[in-house]
TrEMBL record:
Annotated organism of origin: Paspalum notatum var. saurae
Domain DUF641: 64-182
Domain of life: Eukaryota
Pfam families per UniProt: DUF641, GIL1_IRKI_C
Name of protein: DUF641 domain-containing protein
Residue intervals of the GIL1/IRKI C-terminal domain: 367-417
Annotated InterPro entries: DUF641_pln (IPR006943), GIL1-like (IPR040225), GIL1_IRKI_C (IPR056813)
PANTHER family per UniProt: PROTEIN GRAVITROPIC IN THE LIGHT 1
GO biological process, one term: negative gravitropism
Length: 426
């Protein structure tokens, strides 16, 4: 119910009863008898909290009077709060208490700031009671809504442009990748071009060994990347090693694959595949596949076909490509013109050249492997990857990655993987 003028007058009279000077310590305390009446000493603590109203109601012209009354109620509350806060400031002086004076002073300032804010509230109520002001605000709201719709349309347009630009970017990235592959391929062809006309020598053999080892490593890297895509699990693959070998890192299992290809490509092969008569001719091509196209059934061509069927079993090919087309083409006497077979032919040419020169050297180059568990020796072995941090006496070989060669008194070190397990047990 709305308050009457008499009630408002009683409220103002009650507030005015509070004394600001000559106060006692019990001013502001509630009466002990629990009565709700107030005297000059106990009326200062009384506060009446007016009905809280929403902003929606304040926008309605029919509620203007109610909100003006609410503002008056808040003003009376603020005056009451100021008087009570001032009384507490005076109490803090009797007896004199600096800390209490500071605290009550801050409280008095906060009450004063709250009372000052009622001016803005009153002005706001009067604004919304003015029909012209409400009309202006309504027009402003409609303008902002229209602007919001325009911004939303602009956002949709920008999203469409962004989608087109993203598609264009993906196309450019794909084109860049293709160009990069072509550039890398040409650079690789230049790097892999072998200098011919040297004849069979130890220096040539060492160079061929380095190139063969690099090509086997590169082909292994390509196969491992395809294995990851096809879901081939290296833990249960066709590249077994001794179960006692513990890998320093999980990624080091790729060395099992590299060791497999090195053994498959370098192990015993028929003598009819090797001839120094066609050595310079085969090595003169920048692209080894050109040599295969020119003479598919040459010694090098037959070597490629035999080693492909050995090194890339049908289970691997089926897992990588989902078919056996490469294998069928090779078995029929051809050489597939694919990126995968190009990489294999590049590796096969250097292995073929290495084995060819090995047979014509005097003394003949002899291949050797190192068994697992053998103590590591720098004279005959090279650690791949780098040497472990433990002492040499505690390091043992896990398996051979790339076999070594012995030519008379010259030793080309083999490349081995060191076993963590044997290191700990020894």
């Amino acid at each position: 119910m709305r308050r009457t003028s008499s009630n408002l007058l009683l409220r103002i009279t009650d507030i005015c009863k509070v004394h600001s000077v000559g106060v006692a310590e019990n001013i502001g305390e509630k009466p002990k008898d629990g009565s709700t009446g107030g005297s000059s000493e106990d009326g200062a603590h009384l506060k009446i909290y007016p009905h809280q109203v929403s902003d929606h109601e304040s926008c309605s012209g029919t509620s203007t009077a109610r909100y003006e009354e609410a503002v008056v109620d808040k003003l009376l509350d603020a005056v009451s709060g100021l008087k009570l806060a001032y009384v507490k400031v005076q109490q803090a002086h009797v007896p004199y208490d600096p800390e209490k004076i500071a605290a009550t002073g801050e409280h008095f300032v906060s009450e004063l700031e709250e009372a000052a804010g009622l001016k803005d509230l009153y002005v706001s109520v009067n604004k919304w009671s003015n029909p012209m002001y409400r009309s202006q605000m309504s027009s402003k709201i409609h303008e902002l809504q229209k602007l919001a719709l325009e911004l939303q349309a602009d956002i949709c347009r920008k999203d469409s442009e962004l989608a087109l630009l993203r598609a264009e970017l993906e196309a450019l990235e794909k084109s860049n990748m293709e160009l990069k592959e072509k550039v890398d391929w040409r650079v690789l062809r230049r790097e892999n071009k072998f200098e011919i006309g040297k004849g069979g020598s130890i220096d040539m053999f060492v160079e061929l060994f380095e190139n063969s080892s690099k090509c086997i490593h590169d082909f292994t890297k390509l196969v491992v990347s395809w294995m990851k895509v096809s879901g081939w699990n290296l833990d249960f693959s066709k590249f077994p090693v001794d179960k006692s070998v513990v890998f320093e890192k999980r990624s080091h299992r790729k060395y099992c694959v590299e060791a497999y290809f090195a053994r498959a490509m370098l192990m015993v092969t028929g003598e009819e595949y090797f001839s120094m008569d066609c050595f310079d001719h085969v090595m003169s091509f920048e692209d080894p596949f050109d040599a295969l196209v020119e003479a598919q059934n040459s010694a090098f061509g037959r070597f490629c076909r035999e080693k492909y069927l050995v090194a890339v079993p049908w289970s691997m090919e089926d897992s990588l490509f989902g078919n056996l087309d490469h294998r069928a083409f090779v078995e029929s006497g051809g050489h597939p013109r694919t990126q995968f077979y190009h990489a294999f032919a590049r590796m096969a040419r250097y292995v073929w050249a290495l084995l060819t020169v090995a047979r014509y050297l005097k003394p003949r180059a002899e291949m050797f492997f190192v068994k697992g568990g053998v103590q590591f020796q720098k004279k005959h072995m090279e650690s791949v990857p780098a040497m472990l941090s433990t002492g040499e006496a505690k390091i043992s070989v896990g398996f051979t990655i790339m076999p070594g060669f012995k030519i008379g008194c010259t030793v080309i070190r083999c490349r081995v993987y060191l076993s963590m397990l044997n290191t700990q047990d020894s």
